[in-house]
């Protein structure tokens, strides 16, 4: 017996037990409403999606072709339309997640207005967006199930048993739009207690995976900008543990922690690590400090700091800001140490923020990490901050040079030019971009590929195109040809925007509650019937 039919029977039994209290309640209608609202709380979602991610991680370990993907979404409607599109085009949501970007929250969701990615936005906006995304995904479930229930009623009314059985099978095997969210907690918005409190709110809203970075909380910068400042490992590991405690307290025992390192591009630290003996984590962190070895107190100026390292006295270079510099060229070694340390102390996945999308560069670091932690795997930002076209054309150019091919027809510095679009070099570069995710999953340990800000850019691009046409000579044709006609022909569900906003579900509920007296919006005079 299907879950729906079991619920119908159970509610019918309740009606018998409670008698008059259930007067006018149709058990099938109540069971349908229950089926349309599978997840009752955010914690239900977090536990369900954590199981999905753990299963996907195990499948990736067995076969690197089984990598996962997501797009960053800054509004519940955007996330909903993404999952509706995935189900429409691919028939399943498997291996597809949502990404919640701190950058987009800062730029689009702060009450202060647009802000840079420096953790200046309200931290409460992070769990609020998680809750909003899952509200819209659950509404997508309810809408699709509502359509199936209407089709079931129509088949019954027509006496079409075959159609009824077909619709019933779709109901019984319905796949939810609810998928895992990897949610960005930035650097934790404060100390480890603040991190714990925010993590709890995020998990309660539905987050099964929380990404945290090793930058200083009050000096946090976007991963693709200069001026990044990292913290000693002990500080970062305390925050990882704080997130784990939050998961455990709320009963999401297999929640996922993504530890991000910005060390590849971060040349500064705010503090010298505490060290108790040579070779401990603090000593290793301090060993990357840039400075000069000194022989006596005479080499120390007023306000200088001196550290004992490698059996010698090191005077670290200190900037006017009070920050200390790391040695030039030490970034990759620091990344490897960060990643190994995080995995050995509670993290499940890694995030290495790089300055370019280069499989070889990523693989070089991951291979070193895997010498210590063999199943290390990454979440990787396929960032819009990269100029993908120029980066890959230059990679192909360099490969051609190394192979001894003639590159006299190309100007490496000007490879973005449209003049090169149909050349052998550009075609090969586009092929490498197309296969980048599969290649990096296979060769560089990337389990999850995401684009942080894609819907920020698509919203701007589509609005620019509409504004150009609608306010220009095309007038209304700019909207009809550029938007509505494409929606109809591509089967975009929200062309029926009243239905997408819940009008039909509301009509169904009115019928449940009021019977024949219900005043419905979807009658013959509804202009949406034109579609």
TrEMBL record:
Catalytic activity from the UniProt record: D-threo-isocitrate = glyoxylate + succinate
One GO biological process term: carboxylic acid metabolic process
Superkingdom of the organism of origin: Bacteria
GO molecular function ontology, one term from the record: metal ion binding
Sequence positions that bind Mg(2+): 184
Sorted UniProt keywords: Lyase, Magnesium, Metal-binding
Catalytic residue list: 222 (proton acceptor)
Cofactor, free-text remark: Can also use Mn(2+) ion.
Position of the signal peptide: none
Keyword Lipid biosynthesis included in the entry's annotation: no
Cofactor(s) this protein cannot do without: Mg(2+)
Pfam families: ICL
Matching PANTHER family: BIFUNCTIONAL GLYOXYLATE CYCLE PROTEIN, ISOCITRATE LYASE/MALATE SYNTHASE
Protein's name in the database: Isocitrate lyase
Organism: Nitrincola lacisaponensis
């Amino acid at each position: 017996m299907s879950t729906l039919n079991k619920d119908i029977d159970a509610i019918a039994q309740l009606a018998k037990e409670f008698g008059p209290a259930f007067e006018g309640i149709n058990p099938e209608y109540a069971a349908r409403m229950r089926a349309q609202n599978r997840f009752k709380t955010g914690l239900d979602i977090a536990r369900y999606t954590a199981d999905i991610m753990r299963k996907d991680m195990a499948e990736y370990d067995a076969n690197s072709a089984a990598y996962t993907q997501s797009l960053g979404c800054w509004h519940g409607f955007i996330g909903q339309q993404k999952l509706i599109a995935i189900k429409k085009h691919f028939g399943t949501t498997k291996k597809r997640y949502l990404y919640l970007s701190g950058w987009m929250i800062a730029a689009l969701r702060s009450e202060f207005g647009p802000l840079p990615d420096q953790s200046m936005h309200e931290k409460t906006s992070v769990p609020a967006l998680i809750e909003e995304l899952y509200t819209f995904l659950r509404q997508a479930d309810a809408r699709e199930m509502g359509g199936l229930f209407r089709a079931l009623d129509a088949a019954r009314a027509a006496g079409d048993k075959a159609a009824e059985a077909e619709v019933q099978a779709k109901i019984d095997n319905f796949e939810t739009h609810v998928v895992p969210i990897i949610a960005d907690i930035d650097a934790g918005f404060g100390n480890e207690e603040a991190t714990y409190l925010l993590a709890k709110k995020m998990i309660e809203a539905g987050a099964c995976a929380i990404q945290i970075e090793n930058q200083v909380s009050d000096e946090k910068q976007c991963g693709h900008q200069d001026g990044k400042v990292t913290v000693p490992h002990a500080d970062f590991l305390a925050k990882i543990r704080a997130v784990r405690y939050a998961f455990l307290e709320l009963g999401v025992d297999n929640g996922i922690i993504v530890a991000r390192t910005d060390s590849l591009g971060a040349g500064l630290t705010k503090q010298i690590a505490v060290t108790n003996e040579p070779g401990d984590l603090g000593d290793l962190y301090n060993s990357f400090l840039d400075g000069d070895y000194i022989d006596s107190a005479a080499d120390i100026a007023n306000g200088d700091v001196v550290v004992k390292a490698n059996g010698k006295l090191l005077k670290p270079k200190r900037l006017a800001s009070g920050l200390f510099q790391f040695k030039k060229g030490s970034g990759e070694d620091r990344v490897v140490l960060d990643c190994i340390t995080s995995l050995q102390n509670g993290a499940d996945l890694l995030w290495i923020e790089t300055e370019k999308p280069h499989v070889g560069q990523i693989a070089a670091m991951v291979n070193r990490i895997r010498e210590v932690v063999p199943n290390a795997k990454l979440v990787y930002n396929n960032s819009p901050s990269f100029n993908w076209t120029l980066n890959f054309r230059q990679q192909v150019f360099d490969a051609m040079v190394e192979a001894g091919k003639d590159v006299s027809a190309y100007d490496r510095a000007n490879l973005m030019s449209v003049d090169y679009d149909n050349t052998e070099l550009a075609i090969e570069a586009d092929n490498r971009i197309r296969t980048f995710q599969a290649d990096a999953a296979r060769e560089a340990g990337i389990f999850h590929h995401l684009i942080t800000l894609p819907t920020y850019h698509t919203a701007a691009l589509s609005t620019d195109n509409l504004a150009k046409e609608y306010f220009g000579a095309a007038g209304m044709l700019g909207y009809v040809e550029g938007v509505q006609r494409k929606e109809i022909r591509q089967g975009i569900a929200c062309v029926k925007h009243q239905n997408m906003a819940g009008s039909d579900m509301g009509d169904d509920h009115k019928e449940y509650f009021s019977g024949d007296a219900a005043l419905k919006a979807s009658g013959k005079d509804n202009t949406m019937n034109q579609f």
